[in-house]
Amino acid sequence: MDNALLNRSLEFLLLPPGNLLPLLLVLIVLYPLLRLRPGLTNLALGLGLLQVLVLSLPAVSGWLLDSLEQQYPPQHELWSRQPLPEAIVVLGAGRNLNAPEYGGQTTSLTGLERLRYAALLHRATGLPILVSGGRPLPDVPSEAELMADILEQEFQVPVRWRETESHTTWQNAFLTDRMLAEDGIHSAWIVTQAWHMPRSLLVFRQQDLHYVPASTSFSSSIPWSERHMRWVPQQTALGHSLLALHEWMGLIWYRLRVLI
């Protein structure tokens, strides 16, 4: 848990707008030197603001997400392709901490997209489902438990396995692989967003079982992004750009781990 919080903290400080804070601290520390060269200070501040502006453009956010989503795009009626795997794995996607109408907490909107697709795959094939995701703090339900409740109570779909200890995609893969192998499973679909699939498959394919992509949810297109609006800064586009940068950073880090 501590490592997960540390990793997130570092990520937020490396990506905009969080990286403006260390930039500001550097400028404050180096002020005695930089005041002799005000052009350097203006350049640093200008570049910091420019990155936010550029990442807010729908044209940029769409390109960044599309570069991830097209690696393993969703497929219509995936269950019609043979041979079928032996199980369905749904990866955790965080939680909504303030959902009193559901008893306090529930899964995130991203997680709901994964669960909906997993339910569709199960109804089409009858394959058993594993949900994977730990708990960020003690004494709270795990992501796996939250997802299992939704599948069973709302989608009327049974869940055979609950992997409740992982905090990262890397841990998802290791613990899921061990759990499925112990039950005699040799292959499984991985259900996650198309933008998350490259990083997920990279680490799952380092395990012993055979994993097949079951991508869902394209996010590269956003409202108000046609014609000249592609070049108008938008808050939604900034969020999508940061999501894509998060995935690319994670993908690069996981590739380094695999090499090491």
Label this structure with key terms.
5-stranded parallel beta sheet; Rossmann fold; 10 helices; two-stranded antiparallel sheet; 260 residues; 51% helix; globular; alpha/beta
Task: Summarize the structure in words.
The chain is α/β, with parallel strands linked by helices and 260 residues long. The chain has a domain at 74-216: 3-Layer(aba) Sandwich (Rossmann fold). It contains ten helices and seven strands. The chain has helices spanning 2-14, 20-29, 31-34, 38-55, 58-69, 109-125, 143-153, 169-182, 197-204, 235-259, and strands at 88-91, 95-99, 104-107, 129-132, 161-163, 187-193, 210-216. Helix 2 runs antiparallel to helix 4 and helix 8 crosses helix 9 (197-204). It is globular. The relative contact order is 0.16. The mean pLDDT is 88.
